[in-house]
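TASK: fixed-backbone design
INPUT:
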């Protein structure tokens, strides 16, 4: 993968994930960690909400599928960054 491809990927990932504060990144990382430990999205978010009350999500029933897709994307993105040796 050349530098232009990496930059294009990173730009697109920023568009998809959006701007996040440091606290929001920590919250997202916590959700991803819980998911990677086998929790489902509802339990992962509940656990992250306990640790990060200011960033706590309170999704209604219609948002769980979107949140699942978002956190799967973030997990994959983190794995790609790790392979490329790029810090978030």
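OUTPUT:
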């Amino acid at each position: 993968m050349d530098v232009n491809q990496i930059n294009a990927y990173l730009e697109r990932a920023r568009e998809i994930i959006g701007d996040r504060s440091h606290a929001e990144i920590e919250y997202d990382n916590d959700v991803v960690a819980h998911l990677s430990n086998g929790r489902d999205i509802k339990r992962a978010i509940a656990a992250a909400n306990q640790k990060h009350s200011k960033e706590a999500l309170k999704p209604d029933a219609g948002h769980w599928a979107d949140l699942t897709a978002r956190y799967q994307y973030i997990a994959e993105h983190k794995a790609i960054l790790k392979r490329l040796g790029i810090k978030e």
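COMMENT: The mean pLDDT is 95.
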